[in-house]
Amino acid sequence: MRPESRSMRESILAAAVQLFAQYGYHAAPLRDIARIAGIQAASIYHHYPSKQALLVEIMETHMLRLNASLEHILKENDDPLQRLHAAIANHIRLHTTYKEEFFIIDTEMRALEDEHRPYILSLRDKYEALLQELLQDGMEREIFRRSDVKIASYAIIAMCTEVATWFRPNGRLSVQQVNTIYRQFITEGLLLPPGVAAPMPDETAHLL
Questions:
Q1: For residue 208, is it within any domain?
Q2: Please, what are the averages of pLDDT over each run of 10 residues along the chain (208 residues)?
Q3: Over the range 37-66, which residues count as b (16 or more CB within 10 Å of their CB) and which as e?
Q4: Are 31 and 119 within one domain?
């Protein structure tokens, strides 16, 4: 693909992100996306076959980025606590850096057509499974207290995702300061206190 073609695709995609986030997928006409990108509406079809293709690319690109970064954390770190801290920081960093893109992922799953929904949902499921793997490992090694792994993963994802709804780059706290606060909350909730024995097997964490 020629550089100028890549640039035009990026312009179209950026316009789609802006309008999908501002008005919602169904309320964002292709002609308005084209207008913001600086091209004729018909020219979009030289780059994307449909508005749905734009939505799928936005979701796929950023879910793959989220998954790849967590896979890297699991591969490069063996210590459960270091993994957890890195995972929290990574989730908050990506969701505050790409606020509009992840907002679209969180709110427009219902707009996916039937042939695309299972694939995008599988990327989300994979992220949840990776985080659950991290938590399960920490519980089995008696670093984290035993709890329901799936519920714990949902709680962490919800907490860290919510940062993007209120965080402002020029606000009172930096991303790093917010990350430190969240890391403290989550870690204190998960860490097994020193000298406390792990529960009996019938109370152990499990995957639903």
A1: no
A2: 63 97 96 94 92 98 98 96 96 96 96 96 98 97 94 96 92 93 90 60 40
A3: bebeeeebeebbeebeebbbebbeebbeeb
A4: no
